[in-house]
Design a protein that fits this description.
Helices cover 41% and strands 17% of the residues. The chain has 401 residues and is α/β, with parallel strands linked by helices. It has a domain at 3-146 and 193-276 and 302-334 and 374-389: NAD(P)-binding Rossmann-like Domain (Rossmann fold, 3-Layer(aba) Sandwich), CATH 3.40.50.720. The strands form 5 sheets. The chain has a 7-stranded parallel β-sheet, with helices on both faces. Strand 2 and strand 3 (14-15) form a beta hairpin. Helix 2 (54-67) packs parallel to helix 3 (88-102). It is globular, with a radius of gyration of 20 Å.
Length: 401
C-alpha cells in the first residue's frame, strides 16, 4: 500500500502531482454526462489516440459509456510508484477501466508514444486480435515532440510568424496580468511544428490501418483543432501552431475524399476553447478563456470537454448522423463561443482587464479551478485532508518491440 497525503505542486502550467481520488471523481462525472447524452449503443469499434486527458478522454468516455463502443485507447502517461503519484491521465484511465470492467465493456489501453512504429504495430495486433474492424478513429494527440520513422526528432514551437508578439497574458504563479513577448519563428521552427502537430501522423495511421484491412465499411475519423478570436490570433491561429492546424485541416479534406468512396469520411472538429495543459501554456489564451468563460456563463452557454463531445456525437458522428460543416469542411463546435454577441462582450472588456479588474471582468477563479481539476484537485466531494492510495495499477496492452 502507498497511502500518501497528496497536495498540488503547481509549476506554471503543469502540476508535479495528481490526486487519484479527484481524477476518479472527474471521470465519474464525465461518464454520468456521457450516459445521459447517448443512446447506449451504435458506434462499434473505436480507436482513440490521446485517450487519457482533455478532448481525447471525453471522446473515449462518450464512445464507451454513451454509445456502447468497444474501444482501444493510446496514451503516454507516467505510472505511479510507492513514493510518487502518477500523472493525472494515468489515474483517469484507472477509473475508466474500473467502470468499464464492472459493466463488462471491451476497453483496452496502450501506454506509449503514438508516433512510434512500435505502438502502431501493437495497435494493429490488438485490433486484429480483439476489435476489428474500426468504425471510428479519434485523433486527439497534443504532443510537443515527435520522433519520425527515420529517427529524426521534431519539436513544436509556440511562436508568432514574421514579427515579434507582445500582448496580455496571465502569470499563473502570481495571479496577475502581465505583458508577454515572443520572438518570431524561423522557417525550421515552423516546419518542425507542422511535423509534430500537423496532419502527417493522422494520415500515417489511416494508411496503416487501411493496408492492414482494419477499416470497416463507412469508416469515419475526426481530429480536433481550434481557431479562437482575434485576441489570440497572432500567437495561435496566425502563428506556428496555426500553420500546423492548417496542415491538419488540409489533410482532413484529402482523407475525406479517399474515405467517402466507401461511405465514410474524415473531419476536423473546431472545438470550443477549454482549459488544458496545452492551452494554459499559450500567452493570451488563458486570459481570453477567463474572459469568454465569464461571458458564456452569464449567458448559460458554457461547455466543458465532455459537453462538447457529447454534442459532437449527438449532432455529427453518432449513428445515422451526417456531419454539418462550414465551407472549409470543418465541424464547428465553437459556434457558441464565436457568437457575435459573445465575442463583442469579450472585446468590450479586454482593454480594461488588469490586476485590479481581473476578478470582476473575467472568470479567473473558474479558470484556476478548471486548471487544478485537470490534476484531480479542487474537485467537489473529495476529502483532500486524508491520505489516499497513489500506487494504483492499470492493466495495459504489452507494446510490441
Amino acid at each position: 500500500m502507498a497511502e500518501l497525503m497528496v497536495e498540488p505542486r503547481i509549476r506554471g502550467f503543469i502540476s508535479l502531482t495528481a490526486h487519484p481520488e479527484g481524477c476518479a471523481a472527474n471521470v465519474r462525472r464525465q461518464v454520468k454526462i456521457a450516459r445521459a447524452g447517448g443512446p447506449g449503443e451504435g458506434v462499434g469499434n473505436v480507436l482513440v489516440l490521446g485517450s487519457s486527458q482533455g478532448y481525447g478522454l471525453s471522446s473515449l468516455l462518450t464512445a464507451v459509456f454513451g454509445y456502447g463502443a468497444r474501444a482501444l485507447g493510446v496514451c503516454f502517461e507516467k505510472e505511479p510508484s510507492e513514493e510518487k503519484t502518477g500523472t493525472a491521465g494515468w489515474y483517469n484511465l484507472v477509473e475508466a477501466h474500473r467502470l468499464a470492467e464492472a459493466e463488462g465493456r471491451a476497453f483496452s489501453t496502450i501506454n506509449g508514444d503514438a508516433f512510434s512504429d512500435e505502438v502502431k504495430r501493437t495497435v494493429v495486433r490488438e485490433l486484429k486480435g480483439r476489435f476489428r474492424p474500426l468504425e471510428l478513429l479519434v485523433y486527439s494527440l497534443a504532443a510537443p515532440r515527435r520522433v519520425d520513422r527515420e529517427g529524426v526528432v521534431w519539436n513544436s514551437t509556440l511562436k508568432p510568424l514574421g514579427e515579434s508578439y507582445t500582448g496580455k497574458a496571465f502569470d499563473l504563479r502570481h495571479h496577475t496580468v502581465i505583458d508577454a513577448a515572443l520572438e518570431p519563428a524561423t522557417d525550421d521552427e515552423i516546419a518542425s511544428t507542422v511535423k509534430v502537430m500537423g496532419g502527417e501522423d493522422w494520415r500515417d495511421w489511416i494508411s496503416l490501418l487501411r493496408e492492414e484491412g482494419l477499416l470497416a465499411q463507412g469508416f469515419r475519423t475526426v481530429a480536433y483543432s481550434y481557431i479562437g478570436p482575434e485576441q489570440t490570433a497572432e500567437i495561435y491561429r496566425r502563428g506556428t501552431i496555426g500553420k500546423a492546424k492548417e496542415h491538419l485541416e488540409a489533410t482532413g479534406i484529402q482523407l475525406n475524399t479517399e474515405l467517402s468512396a466507401d461511405g465514410g469520411g474524415a473531419w476536423v472538429s473546431i472545438n470550443k476553447g477549454v482549459v488544458t495543459q496545452a492551452s494554459s501554456a499559450i500567452p493570451a489564451v488563458p486570459l481570453y478563456l477567463s474572459a469568454v468563460f465569464k461571458v458564456m456563463k452569464e449567458r448559460e452557454l458554457h461547455e466543458g470537454t465532455i459537453e462538447q463531445i457529447v454534442r459532437l456525437f449527438r449532432d455529427h458522428l453518432g449513428p445515422g448522423k451526417t456531419p454539418t460543416t462550414d465551407n472549409e469542411h470543418r465541424i464547428r463546435l465553437d459556434d457558441l463561443e464565436m457568437l457575435p454577441d459573445v465575442q463583442a462582450a469579450v472585446v468590450e472588456r479586454w482593454a480594461d482587464i488588469n490586476d485590479e479588474t481581473l476578478h470582476e471582468l473575467t472568470d479567473y477563479a473558474g479558470f484556476r479551478r478548471d486548471f487544478e481539476q485537470l490534476f484531480g484537485f479542487s474537485v467537489d466531494g473529495v476529502d483532500y485532508s486524508v491520505p489516499t492510495e497513489v500506487n494504483r495499477a492499470l492493466e495495459l496492452v504489452a507494446i510490441e518491440k
